[in-house]
Design goal:
The protein is an alpha+beta fold. Helix content is 58%, strand content 13%. The longest helix is centred in the N-terminal third of the chain and has 27 residues.
């Protein structure tokens, strides 16, 4: 009897724990299981090598969902169609991670978006080579929907060839358009190009270039050595240290306000000098006039010295001498 009660309590505890666990999962994200999701499919008439189930789906770089299935149209929709009439498309199905309201809105607008040019392309993710599905608006006239004769299980979104696929297709078209004459002339042109390159390479003075390159390397080595010695010169180090000390002193002067004080003192001295000049302007004018008169007198004295050097040193000019026989 006691064992039955104990087992009953244990069963009730397990049941309650499971209920709490389910409620927690529902609160943390399980409610999305009951929300409507939007799944669409697109068809490719070329290889989608590198695109795997679970690959991301982005709209202009924004994460939108992931790939849920990669199938063939012959196994999905064309079992009853003869082999000669099958399209042999690649069917890619995508689940969009949206809320219920957004999923319903996108389901309603899918046909309109496809008519406006919304297309799916396979793109390479960086340098890893892994492909993802990219959605973007393209020219609907350049990329029309692929023809098919079945009813899609999910809303259909047209596709567009990837950029890499377009490059390969253009290369294949170009190669297919070449005829035997074009290939022959192309081969002859390549042969002439190789021959000309061989001749030009033979004309290059490799020995002279090697000698000049060695001389240039020696000169560069000598320059680097001189720079190394200059960098290790104590005089240069002292110069750099002195410049740092001077810069530090100037910075301290600026920080302490000494430069501002010096500028103010210079302004005051300039004002006092202007006032002094203004106050003694008449005396300065008279002094200048006296200096001019003195200069004139010195100039006259210089002329007299040139004419009568003895008279200037000993007395006045010499008396005139009367010649015999001449009256006064």
């Amino acid at each position: 009897m006691e064992d039955a009660k104990r087992y009953g309590r244990l069963g009730a505890f397990v049941a309650v724990s499971l209920c709490f666990l389910a409620a927690g999962l529902f609160v943390l994200g399980g409610r999305k299981w009951f929300e409507p999701s939007f799944i669409f499919e697109t068809y490719f008439d070329q290889s989608v090598a590198g695109l795997d189930v679970g690959a991301p789906v982005r709209f202009r770089g924004v994460p939108l969902g992931h790939v849920t299935a990669i199938l063939t149209s012959s196994a999905t929709y064309e079992q009853a169609v003869s082999l000669d009439s099958r399209r042999e498309y690649i069917v890619v199905r995508v689940e969009v991670n949206l809320s219920g309201e957004e999923a319903n809105q996108m389901r309603r607008d899918a046909e309109t978006l496809a008519a406006k040019g919304l297309r799916a392309q396979t793109q390479l993710a960086g340098i890893t080579g892994q492909q993802y599905l990219a959605l973007d608006f393209l020219d609907p006239r350049k990329y029309p929907p692929l023809p098919f004769g079945w009813t899609p299980k999910y809303p259909y979104l047209p596709s567009a060839p990837s950029s890499a696929g377009e490059i390969i297709a253009k290369a294949q078209t170009f190669l297919a358009s070449l005829n035997d004459a074009d290939i022959k002339s192309l081969g002859q042109g390549l042969n002439r190009l190789v021959t000309d390159l061989d001749v030009k390479l033979g004309e290059i003075p490799v020995g002279n270039l090697t000698t000049e390159l060695q001389a240039a390397l020696k000169a560069a080595t000598g320059t680097l050595s001189r720079l190394d010695r200059l960098a290790g010169d104590p005089a240069l180090r002292r110069t750099v240290d002195n410049a740092a000390v001077i810069t530090d002193r100037v910075r301290h002067m600026i920080d302490d306000g000494e430069l501002d004080k010096l500028a103010k003192d210079l302004d005051d001295a300039s004002e006092r000098l202007d006032a002094l000049v203004a106050e003694n302007q008449y005396d300065l004018h008279a002094t200048v006039e006296d200096l001019r008169a003195t200069a004139a007198n010195l100039r006259a004295l210089s002329e007299n010295v040139k004419k009568y050097p003895a008279g200037v040193l000993l007395g006045g000019p010499p008396e005139k001498i009367e010649l015999p026989g001449r009256s006064r």
